[in-house]
Design goal:
Elements: E1 7-10, H1 15-23, E2 27-29, H2 36-45, E3 49-52, E4 62-64, H3 70-80, E5 101-103, H4 105-108, H5 114-119, E6 123-125, E7 132-134, H6 137-149, E8 165-166
Parallel strand pairs: 1-2, 1-3, 3-4
Antiparallel strand pairs: 5-6, 6-7, 7-8
Helix pairs in contact: 1-3, 3-6
The protein binds zinc ion.
Residues 93, 95-96, 126, 128-129, 131 line the site of zinc ion (ZN).
Length: 167
Amino acid sequence: MSEPGIRFLADDHLKRLARWLRSAGFDTYWRLDIENRELYRISWVEKRTILTLDRKLWAPRLLRLSSHDVKVQFREVMEAFSLDPFEHAFTRCVVCNVLLEATEKETVADRLPERVRERCEHFRRCPSCGRIFWRGTHTERTLRFFEEALGLGKPGARPGPGEDAVR
Ligand SMILES: [Zn+2]
């Protein structure tokens, strides 16, 4: 499976969007209190598309979002670049923005909750923070978010960007 080619830089008001984009596997830089000059520099050097609500920002690679609703923002990003959030979902750490690595169950078993140890066979580990991820309730929440953001599912409860992980 190849990585998606596009890379993003979410401005500091878009933390939630950044996490959802990472959930969908997209390389998304985000950090608090980033200055505009730094935003422009990183966008230029790392060829990242700036995502922002700020009407005063301008850069060669920039997508201006129209809504404070994170689902609308997510849909705008997917539509603007014809992206599929399901294709690379769950390949990236939502906290560190690095690609997860497959890991053997035996090597992580002692760090897992009992019910997960019994139920799950496949695990991924973040090489940066050490969190271990598995298919759990967060998976359903995330897929539901994608569906609702894209208008595929029926509107319902607002899911939060959680993950099932231990570190
Ligand atoms: Zn991590």
